[in-house]
Amino acid sequence: MSNQSLFAVVLALGVCAYVVASYRARSLAAGKPFTLHSRLHYYGAFAALWTVLPALLTIAVWAMAEPMVLRGVMHSHLPAEVLAKSAPERVMIDGTIGSLADGLARLAPDEVEQALAAKTPLVGLLATKGVAMGAEPAAFQIAAAQDLNRATAYSRFGVTALALLLAICGMVVSILRVNRGLRARNAVERIVLAGLISASTVAILTTVGIVLSMLFETLHFFSQVSARDFFLGTVWDPRFSAAGSTSATAGQFGLVPLLWGTAYISAVALAVAVPVGLMAAIYMSEYASKGVRSVVKPVLELLAGIPTIVYGLFALISFGPFLRDLGSSIGVSVSASSVLTAGFVMGIMLIPFVSSLSDDVINAVPQVLRDGSLGLGATRSETIKQVVLPAALPGVIGAVLLAASRAIGETMIVVLAAGIAANMTVNPLQPVTTITVKIVSQLTGDLEFNSPQTLVAFALGLTLFFITLVLNIYALSVVRRFREHYE
Prior knowledge:
The chain is mainly alpha-helical. The chain has helices at 3-29, 40-75, 80-83, 87-106, 109-117, 122-127, 139-176, 184-222, 227-232, 256-287, 290-305, 308-329, 339-363, 367-375, 380-408, 412-417, 435-442, 452-486, and strands at residues 236-237, 252-253. The chain has 2 domains: 3-182, no CATH class; 252-486, MetI-like fold (Orthogonal Bundle), CATH 1.10.3720.10. α12 (308-329) crosses α13, α13 packs across α15 and α14 packs antiparallel against α15 (380-408). It is flat and about 80 Å long.
C-alpha cells in the first residue's frame, strides 16, 4: 500500500474513533453532560488523536529511513569494484539500477524470468513499458534491481502492517478508556501543546541547521582563501584553478563589488518603492472612499503575486531597451542591462510590500488621535504629517525594511536586468551584479564541491544572512524606541 493510501486509511480510522468515542461519552452522560469531566467532542478528539498520531509518526519516520535502508540493501549486492568507484559514478549506477527496478516492477515475474532464461535483451522489453535504458544492463544491475524490488515490497508490507496495527490498537484502547472521570480535555490540550512546541522547535532547528551548514562550508572556504582578501577585495574573478595550482592563483574572490552592486540596486529599488508605496497607503487609508479602496488595494497587491521572472523579462525586453533607445536619442550611452533598469523594475515589484503593510499600520492608528488633532484646528494634511505618520512610524519602518530584505535577496530580476558583471561604478546606467546572482552562478556547472569556486557561495550566503539579520535587529530597535512614545 502506498503512503498516500495508508495515510487515507489511518485518517478514516481516526474519524471512526472520533464518532465511536463521542457516542460512548454521550451514552455515559445519559442526557446529563455536566456529569462528564469534559465536553463530548474532547472524548472524540482524544480517541482520534491516539488512533492517528502513532500511525502517522511511524509512517513519517519510515518514509525518512526507507531510502537509506533500501540503498544499503542495493549496495550489499554490488561487486566490490563497483563500490570502489567515485561518488559521481556510484550515483549514476544507483540511478540506472533505480530505473531498471522501476521497469522490472512493471513487468510480470514470468516475463522477466523467461527473458533472463532465454538471454533476451531487456532493453526492448523495458521500452514497451515506457522505460528507456541506454544500454543492456549488466548482470549485477539486474540482480540489484530485483533485490531492490523485493526489499521495497517487504518494506511496504511491513510499514502498512505496523501502522494499521498501531492505529487499531490506539483506537480500541482509547475508546475503552472513555469514562466519566477521563480528563479528555487535559489530554487533548497536552497533545496539542506538544504539537505546537514541536512545530516551533522544528522551525528553530531548521534555522540553526541552515546557519551551521553555511558556517562549516564557509570555514572550509576560508581555509583556502584569506578572509581579508574576501571581505576587503575589490576584484571578483573566480577563475577555474589549474591542476596543482594554489589558492593564490585560483582566482580573486573580492566581496566589495558584489556588496556594492547589491546595495546600489536595492537603494534604487527602495527609492522607487518607498515614496510610491507610502503615498498610496496614505491615500487609501486617509483620502480614498471605500469603493475606491476596495478596487485599488487588491490591484496593488496583485503586483506581489507576479513571478519575479516575469518582472525580469519585462525589464529585459521592454524597459531596458526603452532606456537604451531613450539615451541614444539624447546622446547618452545607456546599457540595456543597468542599475537603473533592475532597480526601477524591482521597485515596482516592492510597491505592494510597502503600500499594503503601511496601509494596515496607518489604519490601526486610533481614530481618537485624528479627532483630537482636527479638534485643535489642524488640517487633514497636518494631522497626517504630525500625528498619524509618527504614530504609525514603527510599522512603516518595518514595512520598508521588509521591502529592503526582499530587494537584497532578489535574483531573477538582477540576472536579466543588471547583468552578471561585478563592477564598482556609481553610474546607474552601467551594469552591476549582486551577491545572490553570484551564489547561483557559483553553484551552477561541474565544479568540484570542495573547490573555492563552489565554497565561496556559502561564504556569500552567510554574509547575506548577517546583512538581513542586522537589518532586522535595527528595525526591532527602532520599533521599540518609537513605540514607547505612542502607546
